[in-house]
Design goal:
Length: 208
Amino acid sequence: MITQFSDFNFDEIQGVIFDLDGTLAHSNPDFPGLRRELGMDPGEDVLAHVDSLSSAAERERALAIIHEYECRASHSSSWVDGAKELIAFLRGRALPLAILTRNIPEAAQLTISKLGIDIDLVLTRHDAQPKPHPEGIHLICRQWQLAPANILYVGDYLFDLQTAQNAGSRCALYFPDTIPDYAHQADLLVPCYHGFIEAWQQSDARVR
């Protein structure tokens, strides 16, 4: 099943960018535990908290803790159901693919290598300003020589929707469980990647 909140033309999509943790891989760190260890409020942005720390020593300690949590999660990562098939489907359409993640390079590559994710272009928070800043999408678009409006960003969280909106791209929100209260901001709602593939195939058939 796939839900469209607006008229969506799959034929306009010339490239797809994915979030990583929670979108392609079960590799999200234990954010509640991480926030407790950092002395943060529930739901507070981890990276914004680090930036708010007053001393370099505090920031260095916080980043070391975050690094440990991210790498630990990557070591135990597994595929999100249907994500591998979705990548293969998009490869079959000869669409360029990329990953844009708030993760650190080491943790992202651990997940990608462990699962054998067939995407070479990967931007982390060390390569571009972290989401929801649109710099990552714009850098990828320049490399592909494509307009942001012809890019679909696939993610599982509010930051992903905001990143796509800020970049002028379209966004598909993956949610395998409860529909989040910010879901109305997405162009597409995707509770299941198998259904997403089917919807795209049906769109192809209509175009033909």
